[in-house]
Sequence to fold (89 residues):
Amino acid sequence: MHGAEKGNLEAIKADSFILLNRANDLTMENLPAEYRNPKTIESLLLLRNQTKLVDDLVNQDALDEEIKKALHRLKEIFYCIVVTCLSKN
Fold:
């Protein structure tokens, strides 16, 4: 279980920009051909947008509950990508 899942948002508040940079590094050009499909592309776009939302909330000093909700949604999107990619193998 991650610290944020336990309610400790210190790490994400300090380093949300790193998460955003990593999400922005995920591009179609870097994606192996076998994973380039509409579902994965849509999920990657959702992941980037949700990561941007998390970073925006952190930078706006949003309430912890808002940040936790956004992180939870981000985690759901990430696991959707994992499942989609694993189903290709």
